[in-house]
Amino acid sequence: MALPKLLLLLFVGGALSLTFFSGSAEAGEVGVCYGMMGDNLPQPPAVVQLLKQHGITMVRLYDADAGGLRALANTGIKVGVSLPNDNIPDAASSMSYAVRWVQSNVQAYPGTWIDSVAVGNEVFHQAPWLTHQLLPAMKNIQAALAGAGLGDAVKVVTPIALDALKVPSFPPSVGEFRDDIAWSVMRPMVDFLEQTGSYLTFNIYPYFAYKYDSHVDPDFAFFRPNNGQHDPGTGLTYFNLFDAMVDAVFHAVEKLGNSGEHTHGNGRTRRRVASLMRVPESGAPGGKGKTGVASNSKLDGSASTENAQAYNSNLIRKVLSGAGTPYNPDADISVYIFSLFNENLKPGDDDERNFGLFYPNGTQVYDVNFTRPGPGPGPGGPSWCVANAAVGDRRLQDALDYACGNGADCSGIQAGGWCFEPNTRVAHASYAFNDYYQRNGRSVQSCDFGGCGSVVYQQPSEFTSPSAS
Ligand SMILES: *[C@@H]1O[C@H](CO)[C@@H](O)[C@H](O)[C@H]1NC(C)=O
Ligand SMILES: *[C@@H]1O[C@H](CO)[C@@H](O)[C@H](O)[C@H]1NC(C)=O
C-alpha cells in the first residue's frame, strides 16, 4: 500500500532519503518460533498475551494453525505461516491447489498480519526427495498470493538447513553450496527471491556445530568474549560463530554469480537479496530435560541455562543494534529464536525438547529481553518518538510515508481509525514515528526521520496507543 510512495522516496527523494539511510543499517527484528509439539502448552490467546507482555513483534508458525492465526489478529504482531513439506508436491504441480491453500491459510485471516509464507522446512535436509519440487511450489504460492493482491505484502521463503553448504561452519570464505543443489536449485531460487523482494532464510545453529564438533570453542559458539578466529580467505576476524555461519551463506550466494539488480557494498557488487537475511531458526537449549541424561555426552556441558542465556541475549542485542557481519557490514539481519516454549513431545535428544524461552506455564526459563533498553531516565526507562512540526508539512508527509511503509502500524490513523483524531499531519506523524521507534528497539536512529523526529521521556498527551507505553 505505502510501497509506491516508499520507492518514490528512495529513488526520487534525493537528499531526504540520504539522511534516512546515512550511517548505520536499519535495526533488525527479533521474533520467536511458536512450535506446538507439546501436550501442556497454553491456548493461543494466552500465548498472544505472553508475546505482547514481552514486546515480541514477530512469530513463526510451522503450519497455519487456525487458533493461532485467529488469536494473532489485530495485535500488530507479524506472522509467518508455513506450508508443510508434505504439501509441496501438490503445491508444485497444481496451481489450483496453491490458490486454495492461500485462500484458506492466508486470505481467510484478513485481520492477521501475515508477512511470509514458508514453503517447506529444511527440504534438502528433511525431505531431499522433494528438492526439485521446492522452487515450483514456491512459484505457485507466489503466483497465488499475487492473484490475491498479496504479492508484495507476503513474502515467499523456504527455511534451509546449513548443510546445504559443503563446509557449514568455518572459515566463511569457503562457503559454497553443495554441487547437487547449487546450480539446479539455489541459483534459480536466489533469482526468484530477488525478483519477489524476498530474503534469504537459513537456519543458523552454532549450538549444533559445537555439539557435534569437538574443535569448536564454546565461547565462540555461545557469543561470549573470545580471541576471535581469522578467516584466511578474507583477512577478517570473527568473534562469534553466528556471524561466521551467516557469512558462509553470503559467500555461497556470491559464488552463484550475479543477475538482476545489484547494490554496491564495500567495493564488491552484490545482489540486493544477498544482504537480506531472515534467520527462521536460531537458538540454544536451556536445559537437559526431564531425565537430565543426554544421549550425547557433550551435551552435559553445552545444554545449559547459562549458555542459552548468553547466546540468545547477545544474539538479540546484535540483531536489534542493526549490525551486519564482518564480510557484509550493511547486511539487514532479522532472527526468529527457536523456540517460544519447551515442547515435551519433540522427538530426538533431550536437548530438542528444551530450546524454549518459556516453560509451558509462561515463566521464563531464564531472563532475556526482546527490546533494547531505551535511552530514558534509568536503563530501560520508557521513551517515545514525536514529530517535529517545525520541519514543515512536505517533509513530515514524506517521513510519515516512510514510517508507514517500513513496518509502523498505521492502521489507527486511517480515516475512521481509532487514532485518526486529532486529524493533523503532525499528530499522525507522531503516531507513526513512535510506532516505528518502539518496534525498532527504541534506538536513537529509529527516531531520526531525517531530523523530523525527536525522542522524549515524558508520555505525550496525544498518545493513547498501547505500543506507546
Ligand atoms: C513454571 O514451571 C517451571 C518448570 O516446571 C517451574 O520451575 C516454575 O516454578 C513454574 N512457575 C510457576 C509460576 O508456576
Ligand atoms: C532485562 O531488562 C531488565 C530491566 O531493564 C534488567 O533488569 C535485566 O537485567 C535484563 N536482562 C538481561 C539478560 O539483559
TrEMBL record:
Claim: Signal is one of the keywords in the record: yes
Domain called X8: residue spans: 383-466
Signal peptide: 1-17
Coiled-coil region list: none
Record's protein name: X8 domain-containing protein
Location of region: Disordered: 279-301
Subcellular location: Cell membrane
Record-stated family: Belongs to the glycosyl hydrolase 17 family.
SUPFAM superfamilies in alphabetical order: (Trans)glycosidases
GO BP, one annotated term: carbohydrate metabolic process
SMART domains: X8
Domain of life: Eukaryota
Entry keyword set: Cell membrane, Disulfide bond, Glycoprotein, Glycosidase, GPI-anchor, Hydrolase, Lipoprotein, Membrane, Signal
Organism expressing this protein natively: Triticum aestivum
KW RNA-binding (keyword) present: no
